[in-house]
């Protein structure tokens, strides 16, 4: 390469990313979504959607379900009006960050009120939606404190919605429960204010009740084995007398799948950065994301409605190097409430063509630091490549030391260290669900979280290597927040907000709890904690080491916004493309921030993935994945979508070579 700069200047043109060139990427993704919408595999018998504090009906065009108001309708709550203890209803203020159905209106009361839903018998999802904003001077969000019971179970107790939202960096709170309705009668859901002060009240914005297939999560009467009780030789039965609360649900190694992409039960499967942030450092660094979107699945072992097909097309495994595979455990850490039993469901599917027989890939599974499987062998369990399967485990989480509100539930997969036993020293996981089980008092409620600043850094912050340097974070966050809301407005105008919302929600919170794609919560400025746990922060020293102080011989591309270098990070283990932005133009600074925010949230075959960034003084550097050649290669075949943030991808790839 005699004059790389000049040669490459012709082939790479960098443009500001918010030009129309950027749009086809989004529009394309939208098309994929729509095209992927086939009729659901499961049709619930009961499918009730109630918007509280609302009169009439409202159609959600995303899934064609109608939300019915609870004012003067069959869903009106029961209350003691004679004693003057009526509830009231209000509209969320226009200043509410989220103002879409069902968050736009609320029912509120200083006294208990009860909904009585006509439902068939059987197991149901119950989903509750809360928008903790001020509903007038008499309904300040800090005065909302209440309990919710349903079908004899305590779902929430002394629930402080506003502190819960604050702690998780959310505007709205969504909770999903499972319970069994015994007889063909009705299901009562009661909201009771905690008598803390004269002003404490209860409120609710939306209620959803959806039937689920019999024994999807419960243990069927025919199943004499029950569920593996981790840490004992016993098994456990999840009986109809138990209620469950969904606390985590992931499309592991894949993108978020939202309620309309579920199999008919309107479940949300979080993916992308929402899953990444629960990985430990080594797993985040070394794990890889195999994918085979063309494999035809054969559901022989589990029902097709168990999880969306796409979940079994992606996964997370250990990396490409045997030595490294053996040197770490693929580990996730989930904060949970102590003193409860948890149901952990692991979804598996071998789809890589090289894994076809038993013993091709055997590994160990540890749940809560106890052995759950000595020799996991997905092919042996499922009967072959392309056959989805899931495995259930129940584990008890004891109280931690001191009075800490959350304890960590670790899930660790260990490659088989013995070469003679397995062809690949590797482990894989495709999906994950964690439910809290009601205790002997038929209670599911845990304590409210502490307000944000009191949460221990380990819980709210990313692992060290992904941390933001404190110095520049505040102003950067502010600017990003502004930019993001700008992009959202633009998005709504152009109609790609479904995709963006998926991305946006990735910023949600640090730990825990039902972070659903609220169906109607489009845009407005969400609380933004900045990209600190979205992608990795590199020091300038690391970047300089990777590029030998931006040595010209490392340049692989030049554009209006700066040079692109090829470099090695992690002691030479990872090859990356490093984009150094010229600092003089404010346009450059904007591009930098927007690109971090956008790219760190997407994992899509049309987007080269952003690994991290560096901001130090005037230096602004973006670091992209260069190792996953598969990812880059795939861009070459998608000529319908040649644009990657203003850079022609195929040219980008050829430039990297
Ligand atoms: C909703 O209904 C309309 C009209 O029947 C139909 O064209 C559209 O595809 C439906 N959308 C979904 C998500 O089912
Ligand atoms: C639980 O209830 C469902 C109906 O709601 C019933 O079909 C099932 O057999 C029950 N399970 C057990 C173990 O009794
Ligand atoms: C809810 O939590 C916030 C933050 O800790 C607190 O200020 C507020 O008083 C709490 N509300 C009630 C009714 O306890
Ligand atoms: C996907 O699976 C199919 C069927 O097993 C196989 O033929 C194909 O090579 C796989 N593709 C990739 C990229 O692994
Ligand atoms: C799925 O597996 C079953 C059982 O082995 C087999 O009989 C059937 O042909 C397979 N179906 C497909 C579409 O491969
Ligand atoms: C695997 O990783 C080890 C430890 O980092 C390294 O020594 C070795 O060269 C790597 N092997 C390959 C094939 O990359
Ligand atoms: C993986 O986890 C198990 C159980 O905690 C532990 O015994 C083992 O040493 C770990 N392996 C590695 C390589 O860290
Ligand atoms: C449980 O395992 C994780 C890693 O898998 C480890 O970090 C943690 O210290 C272990 N906890 C206990 C109590 O052994
Ligand atoms: C390590 O894991 C990767 C997949 O994550 C697998 O392709 C590779 O074969 C494993 N290494 C060895 C040498 O078994």
Indicate the topology:
Blueprint: H1 4-11, H2 23-36, E1 47-51, E2 57-60, E3 65-69, E4 88-91, E5 105-109, E6 113-118, E7 122-130, E8 146-150, E9 153-159, H3 161-168, E10 173-181, E11 186-193, E12 202-204, E13 206-211, E14 227-229, E15 235-236, E16 244-251, H4 273-276, H5 281-286, E17 316-317, H6 322-327, E18 329-336, E19 340-348, E20 362-367, E21 370-377, H7 378-382, E22 389-397, E23 407-415, E24 428-429, E25 431-437, H8 457-460, H9 470-494, H10 497-505, E26 536-537, H11 540-546, E27 555-559, E28 562-569, E29 574-581, H12 586-599, E30 610-616, E31 619-625, H13 629-636, E32 643-644, E33 647-648, H14 649-656
Parallel strand pairs: 1-3, 14-22, 26-30
Antiparallel strand pairs: 1-13, 2-3, 4-5, 5-12, 6-11, 7-10, 7-13, 8-9, 8-11, 10-16, 14-15, 16-25, 17-24, 18-23, 19-22, 19-25, 20-21, 20-23, 27-28, 28-29, 29-31, 30-31, 32-33
Helix pairs in contact: 9-10, 9-12
Describe the fold and architecture.
The radius of gyration is 25 Å and the shape is globular. The protein has three domains: 4-38 and 213-453, Sandwich (Jelly Rolls); 47-211, Jelly Rolls (Sandwich), CATH 2.60.120.430; 476-656, Phosphorylase Kinase, domain 1 (2-Layer Sandwich), CATH 3.30.200.20. It has a twelve-stranded mixed beta sheet with strand order 2-3-1-13-7-10-16-25-19-22-14-15. With 657 residues, the protein is an alpha+beta fold. The longest helix has 25 residues, at 470-494. It starts with a helix and ends with a helix. Bound molecules: 2-acetamido-2-deoxy-beta-D-glucopyranose (9 copies). ATP binds at residue 579. Keywords: ATP-binding, Glycoprotein, Kinase, Membrane, Nucleotide-binding, Serine/threonine-protein kinase, Signal, Transferase, Transmembrane, Transmembrane helix.
């Amino acid at each position: 390469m005699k004059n790389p700069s000049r040669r490459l200047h012709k082939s790479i043109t960098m443009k500001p990313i918010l030009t129309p060139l950027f749009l086809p990427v989004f529009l394309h993704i939208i098309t994929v979504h729509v095209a992927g919408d086939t009729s659901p595999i499961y049709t619930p018998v009961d499918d009730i959607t109630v918007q509280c504090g609302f009169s009439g009906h409202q159609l959600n065009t995303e899934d064609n379900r109608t939300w019915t108001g609870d004012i003067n309708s069959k869903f009106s709550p029961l209350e003691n009006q004679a004693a003057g203890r009526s509830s009231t209803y209000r509209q969320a203020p226009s200043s509410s960050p989220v103002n879409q159905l069902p968050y736009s209106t609320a029912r509120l009361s200083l006294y208990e009120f009860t909904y009585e839903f006509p439902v068939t018998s059987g197991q149901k999802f119950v989903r509750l939606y809360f928008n903790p904003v001020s509903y007038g001077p008499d309904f300040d969000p800090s005065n909302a404190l209440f309990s919710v019971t349903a079908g004899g179970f305590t779902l929430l107790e002394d629930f402080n919605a506003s502190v819960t939202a604050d702690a998780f960096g959310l505007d709205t709170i969504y909770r999903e429960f499972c319970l069994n309705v015994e007889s063909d009668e009705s299901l009562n859901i009661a909201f009771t204010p905690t008598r803390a002060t004269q002003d404490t009240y209860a409120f609710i914005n939306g209620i959803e009740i959806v039937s689920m297939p019999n024994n999807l999560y419960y243990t069927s009467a025919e199943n004499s084995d029950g569920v593996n009780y981790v840490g004992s030789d016993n098994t456990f039965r999840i009986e109809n007398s138990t209620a469950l609360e969904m606390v985590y649900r992931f499309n592991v190694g894949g993108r978020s799948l939202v309620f309309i992409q579920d199999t008919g039960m309107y479940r949300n499967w979080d993916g992308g950065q929402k899953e990444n942030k629960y990985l430990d450092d080594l797993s985040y660094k070394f794990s890889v994301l195999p994918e085979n979107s063309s494999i035809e699945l054969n559901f022989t072992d589990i029902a097709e409605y168990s999880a969306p097909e796409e979940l079994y097309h992606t996964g997370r495994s250990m990396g490409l190097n045997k030595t490294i595979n053996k040197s770490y455990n693929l580990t996730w850490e989930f904060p949970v409430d102590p003193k409860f039993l948890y149901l952990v469901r692991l979804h598996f599917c071998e789809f890589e063509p090289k894994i076809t027989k038993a013993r091709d890939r055997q590994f160990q599974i540890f749940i809560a630091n106890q052995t759950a499987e000595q020799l996991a062998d997905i092919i042996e369990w499922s009967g072959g490549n392309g056959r989805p399967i899931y495995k259930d485990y129940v584990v008890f989480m004891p109280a931690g030391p001191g009075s800490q509100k959350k304890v960590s539930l670790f899930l660790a997969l260990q490659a088989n260290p013995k070469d003679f036993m397995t062809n690949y020293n590797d482990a894989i996981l495709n999906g994950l669900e964690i439910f809290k089980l009601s205790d002997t008092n038929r209670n599911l409620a845990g304590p409210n979280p502490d307000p944000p600043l009191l949460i221990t850094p380990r819980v709210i912050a990313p692992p060290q290597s992904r941390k933001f340097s404190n110095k520049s974070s505040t102003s950067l966050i502010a600017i990003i927040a502004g930019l993001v809301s700008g992009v959202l407005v633009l998005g709504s105008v152009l109609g790609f907000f479904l995709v963006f919302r998926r991305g946006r929600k990735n910023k949600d919170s640090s730990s825990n709890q039902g972070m659903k794609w609220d169906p109607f919560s489009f845009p407005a400025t969400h609380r933004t904690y900045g990209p600190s746990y979205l992608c990795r922060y590199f020091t300038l020293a690391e970047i300089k080491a990777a590029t030998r102080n931006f040595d010209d011989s490392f340049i692989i591309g030049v554009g209006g916004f700066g040079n692109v270098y090829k470099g090695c990070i992690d002691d030479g283990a990872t090859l990356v493309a490093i984009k150094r932005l010229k600092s003089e133009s404010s346009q450059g600074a904007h591009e930098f921030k927007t690109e971090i925010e956008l790219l760190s949230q997407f994992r899509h075959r049309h987007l080269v993935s952003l690994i991290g960034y560096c901001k130090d003084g005037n230096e602004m550097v973006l670091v992209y994945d260069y190792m996953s050649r598969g990812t880059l290669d795939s861009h070459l075949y998608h000529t319908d979508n040649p644009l990657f943030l203003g850079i022609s991808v195929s040219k980008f790839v050829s430039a990297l070579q």
